[in-house]
Amino acid sequence: MDRNTAFELVKTRISNKNLRKHIIAVEAVMAAMAAEFGEPPEKWALAGLLHDLDYEETLKDPARHALVTAELLAGTDVPSDVIDAIKAHADKKPRETKMEKAIYCADPVTGFLVACALIRPEKKLAAVNVEFAKSRMKEKRFAAGADRNRINACSDIGLSIEKFMELSLKAMQNISVELEL
Predict the structure, then answer these.
(1) Which residues in the chain land under pLDDT 50?
(2) Cα–Cα distance between 180 and 168 in angstroms, integer?
(3) Other residues' Cβ atoms within 10 Å of the Cβ of residue 126
(4) 37: left (phi > 0), else alpha (psi -120 to 50), else beta?
């Protein structure tokens, strides 16, 4: 599935504007991590773009989150490892591959970095740096919904928190217009 087809699918299934922004942020972070590891950025980005495809549908039934997407994508040309990564991000399968581990930590870091931008007077990602973001990681009440354990799981793929924040922040800054930040 190419990016345009996948994004059209996202637009038909996701009506919430902020959720769409989250999805494209995860897509960008996944592409950046793939490039860092010498993996195919398009494939990893596709996992990021499709990872919350069923979120609105499964909001009241989180046990089905990612499984509905997997069913939806079965029989399409979406690679099975992309579908596995989507399931792994929601704890519906063990995280075994680098892509599965990457999407697990990419998902919460995007919301965390958005929160970092929104508390800056400029309300822009450009005003955020790694040191600022890292210092906010210690504050449990700040962006409380961004699971620090999942973000810190970047170590499972050999990235320090500093390098992971740097990659993620740069990826999101590169699409700041789309994110309206």
Answers:
(1) none
(2) 16
(3) 12
(4) alpha
Q: Which distant-in-sequence residues (6+ apart) come within 8 Å of 80 by Cβ?
A: none
The secondary structure element, H or E, covering residue 83 is helix 80-89
Residue 80 pLDDT = 97
The encoded tokens of residue 136 equal: 């906010």
Residue type, 148: R
pLDDT of residue 40: 97
Q: What is the pLDDT of residue 147?
A: 96
Return d(Cα 119, Cα 15) in angstroms, integer. Answer: 26
Question: Measured between alpha carbons, how far is residue 135 from residues 21, 129, 174 in Å?
Answer: 24, 10, 22
Say whether 163 sits in a helix, a strand or coil: helix
pLDDT score for 125: 98
Domains of the chain listed by start with CATH number: 3-179 (1.10.3210)
**CA–CA distance, 32 with 41 (Å, rounded to integer):** 7
- 81, 97 in Cβ contact below 8 A? yes
Calpha distance 114→108 (Å, rounded): 10
